[in-house]
Specification:
This protein is of the alpha/beta class. 64% of the residues lie in helices and 10% in strands. Strands 6-7-8-3-9-10 form a 6-stranded mixed sheet, sandwiched between helices. Strands 2-1-4-5 form a 4-stranded antiparallel sheet, covered by helices on one side. The radius of gyration is 35 Å and the shape is elongated. The mean pLDDT is 81.
Length: 574
Amino acid sequence: MIKRFIEYYKPHKKLFYIDMFFALLISIFDLIFPMFTRRMINEIIPNGRMDLLIRWSIVMIFLFIIRYISTYIVAYWGHLLGVRIEHDMRRDIFTHLQKLPFSYYDDNETGHIMSRIVNDLRDITELAHHGPEDIFISAIMLIGSFFLLLRIEWRLTLIIFAFIPLIILFAARRRHKMSDAFSAVRKEISNVNAQLENSISGVRVAKSFTNEEHEIEKFNRGNDKFSESRGESYKVMAEFASGVGIMSSFLNLMVISIGGYFVYTDIIVVGDLFAYTLYVNFFMQPIRRLVDFAEQYQQGMTGFARFLEIIDIEPEIVDSINAKELTNVKGDIEFDEVSFRYKDGEESVLKDLNLEIEAGKTVALVGPSGAGKTTLCHLIPRFYEVDSGEIFIDGYNIKDFTIESLRQNIGIVQQDVFLFTGTIKENILYGRPGATNSEVVEAAKQSSIHDFIIGLPEGYDTFIGEKGVKLSGGQKQRISISRLFLKNPSILILDEATSALDNETEIAIQRSLEKLSEDRTTLIIAHRLSTIKNADTIFVLTPEGLEESGTHDELLDKDGLYSSLYKSQFDRLD
């Protein structure tokens, strides 16, 4: 895992080396300063050498300035390095998420995914910056101070450094406990994010059912668990920090006590003890850095591990080695012995389905809920992969085509229209991002929404709110149809496209859909059978498979399942 983490430094090697170079300058200065102080106390001041005092003071001022510049560069450019690595990771995980099939999103909540992209990667920034820097500076300071202290008094040095392995051992024993605590925090904040995203998205439903208190209760339960996990993690951190703190204090006491005895016995002089005290405090800085690094490492690598959990998910649906572009589509579609289930162990939604659709024809899929109508339509653009059997377009297996070109030739209008937060124009352009303004306007005219748009104060630049909340259901549906006019696909799938609309709006939208369906292979899923009477072929699906097929009149004459469904709907209307 560490090797994969290091890979993210490669594009930013120059920045990394700059950071390390100036971190080295800071370390060198911190090693020089106690030796300068020692000489001042032992030689320059007692001998009255004011000329050397002034000269060395000027040199130290110059070094202070260099240290100031170095500290600024490390603080700014070092953090910038971390930000850029975080940026690259966030780019990679988002790109990877675009490749994952519908089945991944069926099993994972949006809030959990967002937490991994935002919260988990935030701590990686600190680790990416401070990790190498802290280890490098700590190594320089510990090794450098060790040899310099040996020059002053080797016995005291060995006594002091003998305690460092104890500090390292203490830190190592706390490492696993910290890792577990931070992992628990990650999981709980993911749950809080998921609950928050769900509650905010459904706030209108909550208010309509006067369930605000229920939502608050649900959120508080998750929030309480997160607070408990966070509290436990801080308890572990407190044990860690306080343990290292008391060891640091004990080392200082040893320096004063044993060093004081050495001064008393004339083994060292006061200047040496003063320099020794400075060095001990200086080399305690790298120990504290290592303590901080241990915390950052646990937080950052826990987040990185969760990042890799997503990155390492192999996309189930990928282009075959010799995949070709799907072009010049006629629109013939064939299902040959197709079977599909959503998860292993579950019952198949489709079993050995055989079905043929002629190019340019409009076919309807009807039947009870759970018969696999929507599933069938989702298999054509390969949102899911069939378990067995084959699907053909114009005589070629859909797996022979690149996924991008396949989906570019298929347009889908669903009952639950999703509009992106932004303007009307931006949402229409989603059908073909490179389209011109005139093409956008023409698409809006074809879906009969242009007059409404130009009547708005901001026209096509009108902000529609999150998920188009400022628009009615019919207006959102027309904008989604505009996107398809702009996309101009060869195959069209209408999945309950008008079932949520009132009768008047439904009739108007139906006209737009009929216009959109001209000269295209069109699949319509509908529960309102009155809307599909003019379909060229109607396929009646049940959980057992294809029950009937034919025109509206043919199926009524058969007096089978379709006839029963049709009559029951009109009986209810009567």
